[in-house]
Design brief:
The protein has two domains: about 15-210 and about 330-475, FAD/NAD(P)-binding domain; about 220-320, Alpha-Beta Plaits. Strands 3, 4, 10, 11, 12, 13 and 22 form a seven-stranded mixed beta sheet that branches. The protein has a four-stranded antiparallel beta sheet with strand order 16-17-15-18, covered by helices on one side. The chain has 13 helices and 22 strands. The chain is of the alpha+beta class. The protein has helices at about 30-40, 80-90, 110-120, 135-150, 200, 230-240, 240-255, 285-310, 340-345, 365-370, 400-405, 410-430, 435-445; strands at about 1-5, 10, 15-25, 45-50, 65, 95, 125, 125-130, 130-135, 155, 160-165, 170-175, 180-190, 205, 225, 260, 270-275, 320, 335, 355-360, 370-375, 390. The mean pLDDT is about 95. The structure holds flavin-adenine dinucleotide. Flavin-adenine dinucleotide binds near residues 28, 31, 50, 52 and 406.
Length: about 475
């Protein structure tokens, strides 16, 4: 191997083809789950490769166990499909918490206050919101079951490293694992790595800039603390709010973390969650990832040390889990066939090729004026590769759209559309960019994905009460 000190020149080598299939999905987070299940259910021989030993991505390993924004401000459910199926399966195992259906969209002040106290995800825009808090461990089991039932071949502990390119065509992916370097050949490749890990080698145009004040500019090390005396803690907090806030401030000064969320899950009263926001130079720079990972663990340690001594109810608490997967909010964003921008947020109109509708509940008055965001099929397609989908938070969007619409249910919806379209294109014998959009929309609707009548212009004017006026920032 030749080296000039700065670079090494690797030798050409033969790489073993492990498997050939119709669709290979790289990454088993929300995007990858939607893509793999939908592709397989629609008849494609589907392989999913995931770098860790479980599925769910941030939704399980990142300890981001909140599925929000499922209904719009009127209470109408806009995201369903595979997301709803996941929630239903969790509900069947008593492993989810959410506001009652009959309350979604309610403006009743007492009800809103009740739900807000349980979780601020349950009350947005001064009304009750449909969001679900889920059990990460039960989710892992359920997601495995969904893959098995759909007939997806799952390969864990496999890191997708390089798309196999032949001109504008992607012939599969190379991955590394304990078995060495191997390849999977596929007719359609779906990048669901969250970070667009395959972009650089496929020359897919992308953006990475994020202003420092954006939510998505931050990495996170989330952690759970268990053994909390919930009643003692809430009694103290609710009766001594000023003192409680002072203790939280002191926790920060001590080098720990002030502020946490209580678990609403059945039998998990003694658990609280800590989410965090760590500024960074880049969310794909391995040295930055290492720095933040180490910092996050140090802060988790300081937090538990401080809380045990100073926060009533935490005397017997212990640090039960720091996230197995560093919290990454955004990195590469494709500039694809259609690039969703702030203007689309304001337009509030469906596209002819709409494949998903996302309620917008995080932008205060702007959300009241433009309550839904429509997603075109083209936002999943790169300009320069003809059989490649991006079905994850790296979808084609500017930083404003990305800041609000890269959440778990959104990514599952991208995946469900990409997986369904892959199978339909293959069975029709057409390239994915030529898939029959009307037939795709019909199939998605059949799968329970709420879609608008794209032939009609949305004529919407908000006529409800004004917001109470508290500032709205996305809590994720
Ligand atoms: C701290 C924090 C709080 C958040 N809060 C919320 C919230 O409350 N609600 C919400 O809905 N969303 C929230 N989000 C956002 C949400 O979690 C993500 O945007 C969403 O999970 C993105 O899904 P994804 O499939 O694109 O990526 P990910 O969830 O990152 O999944 C990507 C998957 O691909 C795998 N992978 C990555 N690279 C490779 C590779 N090269 N080869 C093989 N496998 C690979 C990963 O291991 C992972 O399983 C939050 C995010 C963070 C970090």
């Amino acid at each position: 191997m030749a080296t000039n000190g700065n670079y090494i020149r690797e030798k050409a080598r033969d790489t073993k083809v492990m498997r050939q299939c119709d669709v290979v999905v790289v990454g088993g987070g929300p995007g990858g789950i939607g893509a793999a299940v939908a592709a397989a259910r629609n008849g494609a021989d589907t392989v999913l490769i995931e770098r860790y030993g479980y599925l769910g991505g941030m939704g399980t390993g990142g300890l981001v166990t909140i599925i929000p924004q499922l209904a719009d401000l009127t209470g109408k459910q806009q995201i369903a499909g595979i997301t709803q199926e996941w929630i239903d399966r969790l509900a069947a195992r008593n492993a989810v918490d959410m506001p009652k259906k009959e309350h979604w969209g309610s403006l009743d002040k007492e009800l809103v206050q009740y739900y807000f106290k349980r979780s601020f995800f349950y009350a947005r825009l001064d009304r009750v919101s449909y969001a679900a808090l889920i059990d990460a461990e039960i989710s892992k089991i359920i997601l495995n079951e969904m893959m098995e039932e759909a007939g997806v071949k799952v390969i864990l502990h496999a890191w997708g490293t390089e798309p196999i390119m032949e001109g504008k065509h992607c012939k599969g992916v190379i991955f590394e694992s304990k078995s060495g370097r191997q390849a999977i050949l596929a007719k359609v490749v779906i990048d669901s790595t969250g970070d667009g890990d395959l972009f650089p080698y496929a020359d897919i145009e992308c953006e990475t800039d994020i202003p420092a004040h954006y939510r998505i500019a931050n990495l996170a090390v989330c952690f759970w603390v268990a053994g909390v005396d919930h009643k003692k803690m809430t009694d103290f907090r609710d009766n001594n709010m000023k003192e409680f806030m002072d203790i939280m401030r002191k926790a920060n000064e001590y080098g720990g973390q002030g502020g946490f969320m209580t678990s609403n899950l059945p039998d998990q009263e003694s658990v609280v969650w800590f989410h965090s926001r760590y500024p960074n130079k880049s969310q794909t720079d391995v040295e930055e990832l290492t720095r933040v990972e180490l910092l996050g663990h140090k802060i988790a340690g300081k937090t538990i040390e401080f809380y045990k001594k100073n926060v009533p109810g935490f005397e017997k608490a212990f640090l039960v889990l720091t996230d197995p997967q560093l919290g990454t909010r955004s990195s590469r964003r494709m500039v694809g066939e259609y690039w969703l921008t702030e203007k689309d947020l304001a337009d509030n109109q469906p596209f002819e090729d709409t494949i998903a509708v996302f309620p917008d509940l995080d932008r205060g008055d702007d959300s009241l004026a433009h309550p839904n965001m429509y997603i075109p099929y083209r936002a999943l397609l790169p300009k320069n590769v003809d059989n490649f989908f991006v079905a994850c938070r790296a979808f084609s969007s500017d930083k404003h759209v990305q800041d609000y619409f890269n959440l778990i249910p959104h990514c599952i919806a991208f995946g469900e559309a990409a997986g369904t379209a892959s199978a339909m294109a293959l069975s029709a014998g057409v390239p994915i960019k030529k898939v029959d959009i009307k037939a795709l929309q019909k199939q998605l609707a059949k799968q329970g994905v709420p879609l608008p009548d794209v032939t009609k212009k949305v004529d919407y004017k908000y006529e409800g009460p004004a917001l109470v006026g508290r500032p709205f920032t996305p809590p994720h």
